[in-house]
Amino acid sequence: MKILAFAGTSNRNSINKTFVTSTSKYYKEADDSIELLDLNHFEMPIYSYDKEVELGIPQLAHDFAAKMDAADFLLISLAEHNGSYTTA
């Protein structure tokens, strides 16, 4: 099974990154592969319809979506931020 794990944050010192890294170790079987992503490697501008029409969808968005599409299992740690999730 191909497992993709990441924390929904851009904070380099996030407890969610530590949590998802630690938790991912419990899913390691002989035939599993785990890829830990850092969302900082997929930084994109705030969505704008006008920019999408003018410039298209950013390549990093395509790259991130391809990684998610290729995974059999997603392991995500999201922090609560003012009653919702962070924008990352």
Name a few traits of the molecule.
88 residues, alpha/beta, 3-stranded parallel β-sheet, two-stranded antiparallel sheet, flat
Give a quick summary of the entry:
With 88 residues, this protein is of the alpha/beta class.
Question: How does this structure look, described?
Answer:
The protein contains three helices and five strands; from the N terminus they run βαβααβββ. It has 88 residues and is an alpha/beta fold. The two termini are 26 Å apart. The radius of gyration is 15 Å and the shape is flat. A three-stranded parallel sheet has the order 2-1-3, sandwiched between helices. A two-stranded antiparallel sheet has the order 4-5.
The helix tally amounts to: 3
The end-to-end distance, rounded to whole angstroms, is 26 Å
The number of distinct β-strands equals 5
The strand line-up of the biggest sheet is 2-1-3
Could you say which structural class the secondary elements and strand pairing correspond to?
A: alpha/beta
Averaged pLDDT: 89
Strand percentage, roughly?
15-25%
Q: Would you list the SSEs in sequence order as H and E?
A: EHEHHEEE
Indicate the radius of gyration in whole angstroms: 15 Å
Question: Which sheet architecture does the biggest sheet show?
Answer: 3 strands, parallel
Low-confidence stretches: none
Overall helicity: 25-40%
C-alpha geometry: flat
Itemize the secondary structure elements and their pairings.
Layout: E1 2-7, H1 15-24, E2 33-37, H2 49-55, H3 59-70, E3 73-77, E4 80-81, E5 84-85
Parallel strand pairs: 1-2, 1-3
Antiparallel strand pairs: 4-5
